[in-house]
Amino acid sequence: MFSTSITLNQFIVAIQETLVMVGVSLLIGSLIGIPLGILLVVTRPGGVLESKLFYSVLNPIINIVRSLPFIILLVAIIPFTRMLVNTSIGTSAAIVPLTIYIAPYIGRLVENSLLEVKEGILEAAESMGATPFQVIRYFLLPEALGSLILTLTTATIGLIGATAMAGVVGGGGVGDLAISFGYQRFDTFVIVVTCIILVIIVQGVQSLGNYLARKARRN
Question: Using alpha carbons only, how large is the chain's radius of gyration in Å?
Fold first, then answer.
């Protein structure tokens, strides 16, 4: 036994659940958030696909969703979560609010990364006759690649923290372990170990992100 209330196998299962929640919600959230970030940049005033109407609608929607604390969002969309996955507890249920939480967050981070690209590069692309799609594909995204990698790294770390909060409503993972066995059963050992596990995961993700970003910038 690891302690009086929990086994090593339970820690392993909890870590696996956390990785699944982070991986799946990050993948789906990126598929939604990255296009959102690109749209925010290209449709804003002065963008290559400028559309004041589209931007004025999309921008506040992203702000509204981002302004909701995750724990409130988690509870508020329980009916929607239950409708999608037929349950409101467990790992699969936690993925729904995690995805909704991270998608606009990634969108805003991607927007900030793309805005760092020097306007001169985009102007040069347009002067060579590049279409808006070509500007985005061959100039905007490659120039911001290093920053985009760090953006996804930040989003991943934010998700890890959110999965811990998902444990409040039985979302599974390390956070659920800390609450169910550590907090509710007054087991300090479990709380300390779960904190150490989360720190190790976060440090690993950050180190990998920094390495990939440096490599992308050298290229």
Answer: 20
Q: What's the CATH code of the domain at 173?
A: 1.10.3720.10
Report d(CA 137, CA 3) in Å as an integer. 53
Please tell me the total number of residues recorded for the chain in this structure. Answer: 219
Is pTM beyond 0.85? Reply is yes
Q: Which residues form the domain of 177?
A: 8-218
Is 3 among the domain residues?
Answer: no
Q: Is residue 208 part of a domain?
A: yes
Structure tokens at 5: 């209330």
Does residue 1 lie within any of the structural domains?
no
Handedness of CA 180, 183, 187, 190 (dihedral sign): positive
> Per the domain annotation, does 2 fall within a domain?
no
113, amino acid identity: S
What's the pLDDT band for 204 if we cut at 50, 70, 90? very high
H or E segment and range at residue 145: helix 145-166
Q: How far apart are the first and last CA of the chain?
A: 49
In 3D space, the residue among 149, 143, 147 whose CA is nearest the CA of residue 125 turns out to be 143
Which pLDDT band, with edges at 50, 70 and 90, does 133 fall under? confident
Number of Cβ atoms within 10 Å of the Cβ of 204: 10
